[in-house]
Amino acid sequence: MSVEQAPVQRADFDQVMVPNYAPAAFIPVRGEGSRVWDQAGRELIDFAGGIAVNVLGHAHPALVGALTEQANKLWHVSNVFTNEPALRLAHKLIDATFAERVFFCNSGAEANEAAFKLARRVAFDRFGSEKYEIIAALNSFHGRTLFTVNVGGQSKYSDGFGPKITGITHVPFNDLEALKAAVSDKTCAVVLEPIQGEGGVLPAELAYLQGARDLCDANNALLVFDEVQTGMGRSGHLFAYQHYGVVPDILTSAKSLGGGFPIAAMLTREDLAKHLVVGTHGTTYGGNPLACAVAEAVIDVINTPEVLAGVNAKHDLFKARLEQIGKQYGIFTQVRGMGLLLGCVLSDAFKGKAKDVFNAAEKENLMILQAGPDVVRFAPSLVVEDADITEGLDRFERAVKTLTQA
Ligand SMILES: *Cc1c(COP(=O)(O)O)cnc(C)c1O
User: Fold this and answer.
1) 122: Cβ below 6 Å to ligand 1?
2) What residues does N(2)-acetyl-L-ornithine bind to (predicted)?
């Protein structure tokens, strides 16, 4: 028997929610693959992917199956007990990466919090209390807890919350000389996104990541890759570090890891993991059976040559068409990114207008993203149908045409 529910509208948001978000005017109610329907029954094509989360689109049968099967078995037991989905998922992540140990949590910020605490603890145990500095990149994004927002290189997110966490230095991204000048024997970790996501879909240069690796080794510092946005197939490899061939000491994953179910992980080696002894860190929901069962299904589907090759093929489809649109309407100077994380850099005439592009796309029944005010971002499902790509980019072109001829 279904319970009568009071109707809610977008206007309710402003009455009942803390105003830290400004959601779009429509409310999505249902999704299937790369299509989404709103309250009014309008159908949209989804190139936003819940901000690089819905890695298999909406209502993927493998994920629905894993979730419902687990839902009928066991939801939660806490970390006083372990559980089968968590152990199986950990094995799968270890088999597929450099990692030997896994810590599960619930969000990207939480995975990074664990990574930064681990880096500080390792340095403390091995070298004493003076080695705690973290070097991060300007324009980087690592989450919104106080520690992670302070490590992130965007002061607009970290200012105005009282005293900052000390021992964090920011250097320009892709500038190896600046990194060299900042790293010292007080550095416990260098933290980088292989592709800066929120900062504008800006890929690291290979020599930069290699140089960061060497600097960390020379200074007994750990290299942390934040792959919350770039991981789980997004780059065309399971993790972007595998594309570069530069192996971090700690890697964080979230967003696509659960395909829409909240889960995150910190991956590392055994010699580092052993510093987080019993009682040093934890989180109630970490390794939750429901979340881990879904993530297991995600990795099973994603980590196959067919899906990963498909990401690269779909990248080419997107890139060619976006470059054509960029040229034809003079709106982009560059289309960059890897796999199905693409950023279109707005030309001078449209600088600061990424939100206008977002709004124009919505009018054409297309969901896209921005990455800051100057970059239009695409982070669709990795299995988005080629026909949906074509139809979605037709809609995008109409939006751009309207906007540029306004
Ligand atoms: C989204 C993101 C985070 C934060 O993840 P949450 O789940 O929102 O806490 C951290 N790092 C990167 C690179 C991200 O893109």
Assistant:
1) no
2) 144, 283
Q: In this structure, what token pair is assigned to residue 246? A: 């530069």
378 marked among binding-site residues: no
Predicted structure pTM score:
0.98
Determine whether the shortest distance from the Cβ of 108 to ligand 1 is under 6 A. Answer: yes
pLDDT at 1: 52
Q: In what order do the strands lie in the sheet with 366-367?
A: 28-32, 35-38, 43-46, 366-367
CATH number of 10-59+305-404: 3.90.1150.10
252 is in an annotated binding site: no
Residue ranges for the chain with pLDDT beneath 70: 1-2
350 vs 341: CA distance, rounded Å: 21
Instruction: Answer whether 302's CB lies under 8 Å from 382's CB.
Output: yes
Specify the pLDDT at position 204: 98
Compute φ and ψ for 178, nearest 5 degrees. Answer: -65, -40
How many other C-beta atoms lie within 10 A of the C-beta of residue 346?
Answer: 23
Q: To the nearest whole number, what is the mean pLDDT of the chain?
A: 97
- Per-residue pLDDT, 247: 99
The confidence score (pLDDT) of residue 395 equals: 98
Same fold, 10-59+305-404 and 74-302: no
- Please give the pLDDT value at position 289: 98
pLDDT, residue 5, reads: 81
Q: Is the CB of 197 under 6 A from ligand 1?
A: yes
- 3-state DSSP assignment of residue 189: strand
Ligand 1 mutation pick, 113, 198, 235, 369, max ligand atoms within 8 A of CB: 198
Q: Of 3.40.50.720, 3.40.640.10, 3.30.70.980, 3.40.50.1820, which CATH number belongs to 74-302?
A: 3.40.640.10
Mutate to test the pocket of ligand 1, among 255, 263, 341 (most ligand atoms within 8 A of CB): 255
Find the helix or strand (DSSP H, E) in which 283 lies: none
